[in-house]
Amino acid sequence: MTAESPPEVSLDDQCPRCGERFQPFQEYCLECGARLPGSYTHGRPVSGSSSRWLWATVLALLLVALVAGAIVAVAATDNGSDQAARSKAPGGRKATAPRAKAVPVPATTGLRVTKAARAKAARAAPVTWPAGKAAYTVVLLSIETSAGRTGADTAVRNAIKAGLRDVGVLDSSGFSSIRSGFYVVFSGVYDTIQEANSALAAARSSGYELAYPREITPKSS
Fold first, then answer.
1. Whole-model pTM?
2. Where are the alpha helices (DSSP H) in 147-191?
């Protein structure tokens, strides 16, 4: 089944107060701070959370336990064979007898699982906007700084649990392309608007149906 392409963003809507263009479903005008018609006030709860990393870890532990059990069984077999041969040999000396072949241990399997788990854990950590970088992102929601940062940090954790990558929060006061006074929860750092539009589908399918792309330009030092 072919996934539908994410809808392109229209820039035809304008703020009724200052005339600044705004994106669909944007909550506040980033130029004058006015509340926009049809604004998105609160982030929707994230639908579904991925637990595949937990299952991968459980499977890895089970595999390690099975391998350890095989090693113990082989060692016990070897020890029993040695004791039986020694008891039958004259003077109690160990008689020469063919040794059982050891079961090969897939030593690299646990390493591969560990690397995959570490890579996923790294992607799940909140990110910060690259210093001095002008790029595009997908805005999941924005919260006024007067409300405190707790809500924004909670939204970041929820977005990560939903499976979104490169999720973080930025203070709009450090950027010239958006109006000061907001904590912006974003997902991804993209060089082009096309890349941001391509990532939009993942954000909306994860429960953020009103997410939209936005250009982020840091203030010059």
1. 0.47
2. 150-161
